[in-house]
């Protein structure tokens, strides 16, 4: 079972920062999950919340900041003093680093603007230019975005639909929106569906799995990957095929 680091090494470093990604990559993970949104001036940045308040020293909607303004914010001190000065990364910055790593990028597109097409095309183009398309899975709760991608014939990207609850006709739905994989919030209800979906050969990735007991359950039910805040523990539980990662252990 694959281990995907949720927003990086979230238990030990400020989420969705380079520090969290480098730290996660020091373990033998298969992938990194991160969240992408666009700034006021259309730059794709890696950030989870709609507002910057919780994880930076700033305040306000992320979409109301230009990229330059966002870069003034401290995205590390809220977590621990030693991460002071950590920046909100641009997607470009992450790609520059990740292209040299043997890690799959699980890019969650957060709530897009109504006219998302141009921004999405530019962002996917950026990933293609970094030679990362074949190792990128685009996931989102906004499923029309996936159907749009399918129509654009961007076949080298994997597409995953995100859901908080299981769907009775999950596979039929997946086919109807032309997705390849299901990313689902782990729950008692969801667990009943994992074996059926796995039997159909569809990648099933469950989030957010931080407890050993839940991880072992997922493994038993043939879940493809777990998305976890604790890649350190989970990679020790489920050793991954050897990969070449750097030295940034926290
Ligand atoms: O990709 C799964 C998970 O990241 C979705 O929820 O809120 O952590 O972005 P959230
Ligand atoms: Ca996410």
Automatic annotation (TrEMBL):
Give every GP-PDE domain span. Answer: 1-238
User: A biological process (GO) annotation for this entry?
Assistant: lipid metabolic process
Pfam families xrefs? GDPD
Q: Which InterPro entries match?
A: GP_PDE_dom (IPR030395), PLC-like_Pdiesterase_TIM-brl (IPR017946)
Alphabetized GO MF terms: phosphoric diester hydrolase activity
The source's superkingdom equals Bacteria
- The entry's protein name is Glycerophosphodiester phosphodiesterase
Source organism per entry reads Alteribacter keqinensis
């Amino acid at each position: 079972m694959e281990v995907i680091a949720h927003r990086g090494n979230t238990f030990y470093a400020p989420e969705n920062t380079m520090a969290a990604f480098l730290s996660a990559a020091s373990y033998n993970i298969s992938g990194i999950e991160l969240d992408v949104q666009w700034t006021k001036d259309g730059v794709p940045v890696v950030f989870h919340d709609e507002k910057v308040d919780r994880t930076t020293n700033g305040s306000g909607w992320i979409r109301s900041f230009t990229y330059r303004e966002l870069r003034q914010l401290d995205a590390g001190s809220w977590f621990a003093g030693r991460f002071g000065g950590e920046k909100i990364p641009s997607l470009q910055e992450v790609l520059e680093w990740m292209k040299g790593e043997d890690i799959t990028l699980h890019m969650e597109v957060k709530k897009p603007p109504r006219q998302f097409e141009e921004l999405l095309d530019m962002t996917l183009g950026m990933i293609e230019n970094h030679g990362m398309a074949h190792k990128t899975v685009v996931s989102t709760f906004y499923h029309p975005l996936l159907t749009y991608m399918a129509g654009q014939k961007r076949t080298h990207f994997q597409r995953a639909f995100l859901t908080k609850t299981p769907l009775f006709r999950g596979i039929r739905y997946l086919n109807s929106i032309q997705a390849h994989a299901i990313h689902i919030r782990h729950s008692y209800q969801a667990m009943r569906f994992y074996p059926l979906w796995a039997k159909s050969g569809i990648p099933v990735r469950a989030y957010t799995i931080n407890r050993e007991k839940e991880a072992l359950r997922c493994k038993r039910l043939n879940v493809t990957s777990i998305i976890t805040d604790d890649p350190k523990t989970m990679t020790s539980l489920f050793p991954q095929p050897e990969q070449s990662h750097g030295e940034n252990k926290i």
